[in-house]
Amino acid sequence: MYRRVIFWFKRDLRIDDNRALFEACQNSFEVIPVFIFIPSILERFKSYDRRTGFLIESLKHLSKEIEKKGGRLYCFHDEPQRVFLTLIRKYGIQAIFTNRAFSWSGEEVEETVKKLCLNEGVDFVTFNDNFLAEIDKIPYRKIYSKFYRYWEQNLRLTEVSSPERINTPKLNEPEIDIVASEISHEKNIVWKPDFGIRRLKEFDFNRYEELRDRLDIDGTSKLSPYIRFGLISLRKIYRVASEAAGQDCQFIKELAWREFWYHIKLNFPQFKNLEFQEKRRKIRWQNDEKLYKAFIEAKTGYPLIDAAIIQLKQENWMHNRARMIVASFLTKDLMIDWRWGESFFMEHLIDYDEVVNVGNWQWNASVGPDPKPLRIFNPIIQAKKFDPDCKFIKKYLPSLKKLPSFMLHDPLTHRLPYHKPIVNHFERLILIKKLYS
User: Fold this and answer.
1) Low-confidence residues of the chain, pLDDT below 70?
2) Which one, of 87, 100, 110, 72, lies nearest residue 12 by Cα?
3) Does 431 appear as a known binding residue?
4) Does 423 lie in the same domain as 289?
5) Is 353 annotated as a binding residue?
6) Which helix H or strand E contains 197, and what residues bound it?
7) Is there a contact between 348 and 312 (Cβ–Cβ < 8 Å)?
8) Binding site annotation covers 220?
9) pLDDT of amino acid 371
10) Does 224 show up as a binding residue in the annotation?
11) Is 238 annotated as a binding-site member?
12) What range defines the domain where residue 406 resides?
């Protein structure tokens, strides 16, 4: 039994069904909950904006939940090794409990703290709590369908209760309100900490497979930011979804996709910057700066593409079908390196997960794990199929709201009072196939 420990919150901003927090409370007399805003990561992800605003509001919510259990949440804006060195020496810390990091950035930070603990004679206790399965124990499988079978066999679905009490000593250290006032951020009016719980209760998982690709319908769960920051446990989400739609429903298969990308990363750590498919590592991307500028400024001349980019910038989120269409357009139609797109999403997505984002971009660029040799999304067909009445397009491009759908779907055939298409999809098809040959 430890006398005094730190619990380090990272991507698990909840007290309910938080394995490492539960164990910290069970195995110590005093627990000091800590969250650290890491400047190097916030700067790398360019996150001093509404995304940090969402994180701050989520931490305020978490702080109140901790206080209900008798504890306090202390927050810092510094590099973790400096924060922990001070706390360890100042308060006689015997162990740091946390849920293990699996991302590249998370592992890098965690490694510095582990070394610090070793030097200071402090135990560093970790748990695997950010996945439904023991992904590091699944035999290496390069194709999702084969991984999924093993994933189902390795699920760990037992939830843990929230601690009965969090016994935190009163320290002269900053809490979230103090730190929030010192960190540059913008108020997030789109995403609220309590939306995820309400959405989980209200969402119709039975219709997810039917509606998930429709851009004009509210058919996706919108739980990704809450999964990204761990505001809701994955086991709870799995339980609710499976009770509503069955254990083999499409929504659960999407949860498995997230874990598949981490499985790939564990077995192929170069994945971050290197194409998974060796034959695709020498693609000569054109990387036209003017085309890229038009893309990120939502001036491609394809209303569907531009609407998706505007959604991303306005909401820090993009519909999953739109993400695929946009990624295909950048890498295939514009012939721009997938890493440029990955970096662009990193700067804007509230649910940005570097491992999942890299996986998705490599898949869409046809350089990652995928049994199909070359996927090319036709933006005209995609618009007709998934935004038939152009409700999505007109929401984000209101200047076009009076135009009929058939014109907005096909800007190559119909001259629009809008930006001229920067490329002709059909003309680019020949070049795309040469690029990937």
Assistant:
1) none
2) 100
3) no
4) yes
5) yes
6) helix 195-202
7) yes
8) yes
9) 85
10) yes
11) no
12) 278-436
